[in-house]
Amino acid sequence: MLEIISGTAVKKLDTDFIAEKGITSHRLMENAAQAFCDWFESNYHRNDKVGIFCGPGNNGGDGLAIGRLLWRKGYDVIVFLLGEEGKVSADCRLNRELLPDKLPAISMSADDIAHMEFDLDVVIDAILGVGVNRPLGGDFLGMITKLNALTHVSRVAVDIPTGVPSDECLEGDAFKADITVSFQYPKFSLMFPEHAGYVGILHVVSIGIGNKFMRQFSQNKFYLQLKDVVSRHLNFSRFAHKGDFGRVLLVGGSYGSIGAIRMCAEASLRTGSGLAACLVPTCGVQVLQVGLPEVQVISSNSDRSLSLAYPKEGLDRYDAAGIGPGMGTTADAKEFLLDFIKTFKGPKVLDADAINILAQDKEMQEYLGEEDVLTPHVKEFERLVGGCQNHKQRLAKAREYSRQYGCVLVLKGAHTCISFPDGTQYFNSSGNKHMATGGAGDVLTGMITSFLGQGYGVKNAVLCGVYQHGLAGEIASEDKRRGTIASDIIKAIPKSYLALDVD
């Protein structure tokens, strides 16, 4: 699994790798350029006009090597050089010298930046890299402003968009990439929603640095990818019966909000639960028995919301529970939640209104434990912990909350962050913007609950649930785009197993 390390450690990481392998820093730069070009070839045509904007540091050196390699592969390439000649790094200078004579290379002055017009199909940003530690200014800001104003071009950032710091939140402006191709590991700041408009779609390409070198700089932050999930899935024999696939209880719903718990239950079944039961107020019984006949339905003996009158006998027959979707935050719901948390002893997922109730009652949070999973979106999370100035602070608070209460916290969003009580955090790579639709969170609750019920253990259940939820969303939106709804994600869950090649 890929480590996410500090941008300040990059120089030491590169130095250690170079020394161990007995190669030069220029050779490592060539590896990075080749990895970028391999990706580029599979995404862009040779008749595209490609402009590569190169700064004076090693990020510019990467860009120059990329330009040389793409030109040799037959791409229509032009290189633009920025920065003072006396401040060019050694490897960047070498790559300037290695540019073929016939490859157009233009040195850009401030006046050139202000007046030059660019006729390009693809803009590759290799101006400044992970060393940025202050807002852009001068010629660099002028060039970025010019590039951001171009229309009808595809923008690709090399490693990190110029101007975006690797570990902090952006101040000022930065290159607005459609795609960022990051080398070896994603930089921490690329996980921040504040930077979404600058990062675009993130791709991570290997340049040959193994985990052995990454671990010495570990911050216990990891990037969750498809290959990390497949091995975490359980295998079941042909003799397995529905009991082996787990019995789960989905709890929630209130008058006018039964759909949430219905979607949660259907997602659980599609994820593989052997048996799913729903505990709902009486207003939801008929809805579920007609709309989702595969689930058992238990009434809490209250017409409009969950109440303390729910049947408690037999709760121990369920392997896991998911609670919260659509349940409301009435006084009855609050009493119910506290009683359920105390009564149900198995692993459980708390979502939506269950989290909103917890936020109102700090004492109730003391009942959380290592088998409990909270799945808040950003607003729900800030109700729990208070306001946050930025996402970096939010992630720090998520880690601290998980440690304090000994539970797992899934902070939902692009690159959903999963915090474990031991301080580790995992950032998800699957999913897309088309999943930003009502009910998608209820689907996630059902999926994680299902994996808990199947006996995955808390860590594997959460990692598999979060990744596969995003994967199902990608599959569902392939032919629907912004028309994707939560029910489409549920329908795509079986296809996600096919994509993972998990039986």
From TrEMBL:
Entry's family note: Belongs to the NnrE/AIBP family. In the C-terminal section; belongs to the NnrD/CARKD family.
Manner of cofactor binding, per the entry note: Binds 1 potassium ion per subunit.
Complex formation: Homotetramer.
YjeF N-terminal domain location: 10-215
Residues binding K(+), per UniProt: 59, 125, 162
Organism taxonomic ancestry: Bacteria, Pseudomonadati, Bacteroidota, Cytophagia, Cytophagales
Protein's name according to its UniProt entry: Bifunctional NAD(P)H-hydrate repair enzyme
Binding-site list for (6S)-NADPHX: 58-62, 129-135, 159, 260, 326, 377, 442
Organism from which the protein derives: Echinicola rosea
HAMAP family: NADHX_dehydratase, NADHX_epimerase
Cofactor: Mg(2+); K(+)
Cited CDD domains: YXKO-related
